[in-house]
Amino acid sequence: MEVLIAVIKLIIVVVVLSVYVMYATWYERKVIGHMQQRIGPKRVGWHGLLQPIADTIKSFWKEDVIPDRADKPLFWLAPVIAAAFPFAAAVAIPFAPPLHLANGKVFYFSVFHSKIDILYILAMLGLASFGVLMAGVASGGSKYAFTGSQREAAQIVSYEAILALALLNPILMAHSLSIEGIVEAQRHLWFVFYQPFAFVAFVIAMIAATARVPFDLPEAEPELVAGHMTEFSGLKMGLFFFGQYVLIFVVSALASIVFLGGWTGPVLPGVVWYWIKILAFIFMYTWFWGTFPRYRYDQLMDIAWKALLPLMILNILWTGFALAVGLPVF
Amino acid sequence: MQGWLIAFISIVLLFVIFFGLLVVFKFLSPKEYYKEKFDLYECGYPMLSELRHFNIRFYIIAILFTLFDIEAIFMYPWAVDFKSLGVLGVIEMGLFVVMVFVGWIYAYKKGALEWE
User: Fold this and answer.
1) What is the reported pTM?
2) What residues contact residue A134 under an 8 Å CB cut-off, 6+ apart?
3) Rounded to a whole number, what is the distance in Å from the CA of B6 to chain A's nearest CA?
4) Less packed terminus of chain A by CB within 10 Å, N or C?
């Protein structure tokens, strides 16, 4: 019975997130358009609202080009992995605060919940980078795909270490790895006020780990064409985009849960607060896209390994020390 | 236990869904073969060269990542059990972190973090 409910929930999550991804592309193009004083999509439907549907249908009727030199099984597997693991991470993200029913049971708005949600999500984010790496190897020696996938894999891997270290600070304060536990620990004051450095490091790392502007080096168009996606066409390329946008949703939700108190907040009901925070992070991604130029690759690696990593290690030492002795954390 | 079964079933189902989508795509998409189209992408030339080796820097980054990510994962149980481990736990973890930090300084001085 529980499994059946979970499968129904999973199908709902897949459908909702697919529609979300389609409209996230529309929203992004529209916002970027207005930031650059253009209109953005306007032709298909009212204010271009049918544009994402047209794009999706189009991607099904593109030719499925598999280069002769490509490694065929890997070429099929890479987009599936790149799309499936971000969705697998999203499975643990709640869509609303848990509902306490009259008979004492709790209804969760996530497919899957456990005592170690955060660890599970981090593991799935780590596995998602295999899709990128595999895409480069599968392309059979294509310069652009191979170079792009190596760079992206190195970048994702570096910033995932930062992500894990930055998340450790609020977890030290919450003593819990479950999403509910962390949100409950922030009833009085959100962790962003205790851990401003960890929050900034987390935001930088989450942008870099999803490879978006200003850290979108792997897709630097003048140098690398489309990075690891160069040889992929139609829906196969579409699945990479799916994975990336779902990843953005997952890290945005994670940031709002861990640092901004999830569904806690004054006056408004919890669900509204929760979605305001997530949508604010998603807007932030687009905003940065319209604002910042791209970093160089050596600068990117320096930020991760020479600045954020020692800063986060010192931050953890300080948080642990202050909590043990009873000093204020910040 | 039931929870992890659900996680496993979800991952398998997601793989089936996306693989199924790709199979649908394969049958819907038009097919027209000529050799140049199925060659690797190149900026307007016939294919010049292929690339199958990688810079040793990426290897070093992978090793450093393993080190620091395992450090982070190692600290998670400590963070959850922080209260019961108390001051002794903080001192022990502090020693561990300082040792890893010395490793980071060594890597820095050796130039493992430089990109030229």
Assistant:
1) 0.90
2) A74, A77, A78, A81
3) 6
4) N
